[in-house]
Design goal:
It is elongated and about 85 Å long. The chain has three domains: 226 residues, Rossmann fold, CATH 3.40.50; 92 residues, Rossmann fold (3-Layer(aba) Sandwich); 81 residues, Alpha-Beta Plaits. The relative contact order is 0.13. Helices cover 41% and strands 19% of the residues. It is built from 16 helices and 15 strands. By secondary structure, the protein is an alpha/beta fold. About 1% of the residues have low confidence.
Amino acid sequence: MTVTRSVRPAAVPPVGLVDVREARELLADVVAFTPLANSRALSELCAGPVLLKCENLQRTGSFKIRGAYTRIARLDAGQRACGVVAASAGNHAQGVALAAQTLGVRATVFMPERAALPKIDATREYGATVHLVGATVDDSLVQACAFAERTSAVLVHPFDHVDVIAGQGTVGLEIVEQCPDVATVLVPTGGGGLLGGVAAALPDGVRVVGVQAEGAAAWPPSLIAHAPTVLPVMRTLADGIAVGRPGDVTFPQVTALVDEILTVDDDALSRALLHCLERAKLLVEPAGAAAVAALLQHPRRFATPAVAVLSGGNIDPVVLGQMIQHGMAVAARHVELRLRIADRPGALAALLTLIGEQGANVLDVTHSRVSGALHLGEVDVAVSLETRGHQHVADLSETLRAAGHGLIGAGHTSEP
């Protein structure tokens, strides 16, 4: 789905270039100036230079430290004494925890019950007290707000505050310095803090594109309604951008400055994660791969030089394994062929030999003689294979048919 920003005159955005520049001065000795890596594979695909802004290599593994530190550093002594509280699936949690530890402020963080264990552990290691509540970040945010009311702790919102937006926007300042002629910047988008901040930092004429996970895309209906709209349900592997409602501060920021919002499904995110790992040698979480997913899905849509922000690299190893397997399936590199062959000695061996001669690697074989669809003297065979992609599968299927093997189905499999 694609939604362009409203054609109605937009209000002045809450955060401007001056705000982002001031945040950068505050962050000078705190955050890393992350690299902008050239992607030859994406450049060839998109017919022009494509570069990757590696916020997955930032301190705590994501851009979140930028906004969290900016927000906490601007608290007065009384506010700092009360401590800070946050809600997050992991990246903002780690950013708040490290920023608070650096500034000597007590931090409490509410995280969804199923937050990734490495993110929970890292947040605790940075000194924060962690509470696991609810199924989503929005559930955790309700509890964080209640905690703030009870204790007078300052809520450090994951995206909906001018200081947070300004801090995240420093990513955009670095992009302009590293690629002065940038034409398009693609940004993974949840609540809109990073997207709105980056847009504030970029010169006029640079196209800014937000990329959301299709299963948690609150921005398209909100832009259509001209107001933040709550999603009734969310389902995506990209927990880092699974936000059910744009913020009251980020909404006017994004509508004023951002040109387009795209959505990508989990298949595209899996493919993008695998692409970053194999072709760029960069470990990126599903949310962090959203901008690359948009480029892979629409390779000639964007003016170049284009910069894809890799917003984070914190991923549970279990999820990483699932994503790699799923990405292999989406790319037709793990497939299952179902065939009907003669039930005679040597027939299965001949089939597997032919498959091997075509360069496919057999991962698993299921051999069944029991089916109402079978005639006497027939057997069904399901062969899980590792292949080189869609064209290889098509060529292999044609070869098997030509050899007299009855191909009755082909599908992707995520099983290695």
